[in-house]
Amino acid sequence: MMIRQFLVATPLLLTITPALALDPPLADPPEIEKMVRKTENYTFEYGYPKSLVRDSQLSDYLKKDRDKEYTRFSTEADRDHTNSAAIAGNRPRLLPYDYQVHWREEADIPTYRSMVQHWYGFYGGAHGIYGAKSWIWNKVTNQMIKPKSLFYSTEAFDQALEKGFCKQLNIQRAEKRGQPVTTDSDDSFDQCIPASDQTIILGSTTGSGFDMIKICAGPYAAGPYVEGDYQVDLPVTQAIIDTVKPAYRQSFSIKR
């Protein structure tokens, strides 16, 4: 699992590894386009499947995003280490920063390609942080759009998913904690969270339309860091399709 490798390879100070739920990219993808830069101040890694390179417009987008992220991260890392060294005195040197981005394809349907960007960052401190972002590539207009923009209302989206999402989230919480969740608790980690505030990944079991939705909550979103992230997989229902904007509705189908 890619993110598990991230946690092992990075100089973390905690000995507790959080449980991971999010679907990771393969540990050793058969074909990967990867850029790695390593200095005394940082390690930067950015990769994506070579299958995505076949789309020249998407390939150009990923390369530009890679270069932008590298410039941002390397500038910040060099600045922080330079400033730290200037005031460090006899204190230990600031640990090298680490930033890793790996893309995977979630679904490929007519007109759209659903993609997930896994990321991991370490900027000093007790431990790193990780998570995922999701995007939809429009193969006709050659534009990247956010899945949330396909729905006309976050409130309607949350209402359509709430019952199934909250139930499955609490089942996973109970499994990780070894005890049922107290639904009337004042603890925020016992309460349900808005699905629309999390990472929304659109999937397909048929290749013809989006019929699955994955809601991914990163560390601290639904539980303490040690619990890791959460991923709830839900079938697309008519109630969900009713929240989709008319322009995108033909790309969704009810999960059979």
UniProtKB/TrEMBL annotation:
Top-level taxon of origin: Bacteria
Xref: Pfam families: PdaC
Domain (Deacetylase PdaC): residue spans on this chain: 37-129
Secretion signal span: 1-21
Identification of the protein by name: Deacetylase PdaC domain-containing protein
Keyword line: Signal
Species per Swiss-Prot/TrEMBL record: Parasphingorhabdus litoris
InterPro entries: PdaC
